[in-house]
Design a protein that fits this description.
Elements: E1 15-24, E2 30-31, E3 43-48, E4 51-59, H1 67-81, E5 86-88, E6 94-95, H2 98-107, H3 110-120, E7 123-132, H4 134-144, H5 146-154, H6 164-193, E8 199-202, E9 210-219, H7 223-237, E10 241-249
Antiparallel strand pairs: 1-4, 1-5, 1-6, 2-3, 3-4, 7-9, 7-10, 8-9
Helix pairs in contact: 4-5, 5-6
């Protein structure tokens, strides 16, 4: 009879703590959102003095940047943000246990984290994206730039094979025109919002038609004024521009705590 070698049981990951954010919360607290990982772990605080980490139990694994995991992480932050000023911790941060988190973060970085919490207190992040409407922007480029219009007209009826380089040149001229217009439009939008914004983070536009991809750090007392400013821009420029306005959200663009164990 042939003998088979028994398979060793799969290694089980040691338990640790998943970190979501840092808050000012001296009293113990728990939250309704389940912890990351699908096990239903309770999200709770781990406090040293007034400084607390929001954590849940977790295997000590590397979390994939999947939609499910990102949503679980984000839902916790959104719930916490409704009641506390918070400092987001980078997605996927897992500590070995309470003692390490308390010593290395809550005690070792107390001064830094307390200062950042004060900077974020009473402030929220709001995001604004502005995009040209497709049916408008290229017509404007042709109307405003005689060189582009002349070259475009010269290509009518010509085969792509015989006008290959001219078409490349046309694309370059349109790209240059869009860049100039984007700078002008971006500045015009920012002029409208600057009176209501404490800090601005300009992220890279996505695609040819996006003008602005910005995050704003705003005093909660000025949030309504910024909302009104965005509504007025939409009323004034909505025929040409599409606006996407989101928030309040955790202040990812202005402070994110990175932890190196």
């Amino acid at each position: 009879m042939m003998q088979t070698e028994a398979l060793a049981p799969a290694a089980v990951a040691a338990e640790g703590k998943y970190l979501y954010c840092i808050i000012d919360a001296p009293a113990p607290a728990t939250f309704a959102s389940p912890g990351i990982g699908g096990r239903g772990d309770v999200v709770h605080t781990l406090a040293v003095g007034r400084l607390a980490a929001v954590v849940s139990d977790t295997p000590r694994i590397e979390y994939e940047n999947s939609r499910r995991n990102m949503m679980a992480h984000t839902k916790v932050l959104e719930e916490v943000m409704a009641h506390h000023t918070l400092l987001p911790v980078c997605f996927g941060t897992v500590g070995s246990g309470d003692d390490v988190i308390a010593e290395k973060i809550l005690e070792g970085r107390r001064e830094e984290l307390s200062r950042l919490l004060e900077e974020m207190r009473g402030r929220v992040e709001l995001g604004l994206k502005a995009t040209w409407r497709e049916e408008v922007i290229f017509a404007e480029v042709l109307d405003e730039d005689p060189a582009v219009r002349k070259l475009r007209d010269s290509l009518v009826g010509r085969s792509p094979e015989k006008s290959h380089f001219e078409r490349i040149r046309l694309g370059e001229l349109i790209g240059q025109a869009l860049l100039r217009k984007r700078r002008d439009e971006e500045e015009r939008i920012l002029d409208r919002v600057r009176p209501f914004v404490r800090k601005t983070k300009l992220n890279k536009p996505i695609g040819d038609r996006m003008i602005l991809n910005a995050a704003f750090l705003v005093e909660t007392a000025r949030e309504a004024a910024l909302d009104q400013s965005v509504r007025e821009m939409d009323a004034d420029w909505g025929a040409r521009l599409s606006f996407k306005y989101v928030g309040p959200v955790p202040p990812y663009n202005f402070v994110t705590i990175t932890i190196h164990w």
